[in-house]
Amino acid sequence: MPQPSGQRKPETIRSRDPERTQAEILSVAVREFAEHGFHGARVERIARSAKCNARMLYHYYGSKEQLYLASLDSVFASIRNREAELNLTEGDPAAMARKLVEFTFDHFANNSNFVKLTRNENLLDGKFIRRSHMIRDMSQPLIASIAQLIERGHAQGVFSRKPDALNLYLTIVALSGHHLNNAATLGAVFGQDLTDPDWLAVRRAHAIDVILSYLGVRDG
């Protein structure tokens, strides 16, 4: 039916999906905080990139600090959930140890926002991450599963050593992340591009060999 003269045709109003909006804000925030750190990040840039306004952002997250904490929770939930999927308490212990090193190395290599966020938080002396009970609670099962893996591997004679689970995991993290956190300086000092894919493949194989050799896993 024709519209009366001067009357506008009704517009279709697209209502926002709250969950999608929150997820988009968080995704943008992770990138912003990773790139600029907590103090350098700007709420206005996050809101603009998420196609919302600052008022909506504060409605969902309350404050810049709360959004930063949510960003930390998000990147740690991602790695912890995927680590849980490895199911380290079953299967051949040597294969599971190898899988843990491979996963950790690859996750660090392919998730620069995680590496940058944790590096920036270290510059703040862990000021904000200490407030996250979620990150701490999610991390305990990982260490417990590594401890079970070590115990099982040693009992079966696959591992000749029984290292502390946390120390072993921190060594895996160091082998997986140190070259990323220091790529610019170490690359300049030694004249080697530490982001080169071929070099990273050699580094990955080295990390696996270091951990399996330390555990006492024999080739073959």
Tell me what the structure shows.
The chain is mostly helical and 220 residues long. Helix content is 71%, strand content 0%. It has ten helices and no strands. The protein has helices at residues 18-40, 43-49, 54-61, 64-84, 93-110, 112-123, 133-155, 165-181, 183-190, 197-215. α5 packs antiparallel against α10 (197-215).
Any idea of the CATH class of the domain at 69-215?
Mainly Alpha
User: Distance between termini?
Assistant: 80 Å
Structural class of the helices, strands and pairings?
mainly alpha
- In round numbers, the mean pLDDT is 92
- Uncertain runs are 5-15
C-alpha geometry: globular
Largest sheet: none
Classify the helix fraction into a percent range: over 70%
TL;DR?
This protein has 220 residues and is an all-alpha fold. 71% of the residues lie in helices and 0% in strands.
Q: What key phrases describe this protein's structure?
A:
mainly alpha, 10 helices, Tetracycline Repressor, domain 2, 220 residues
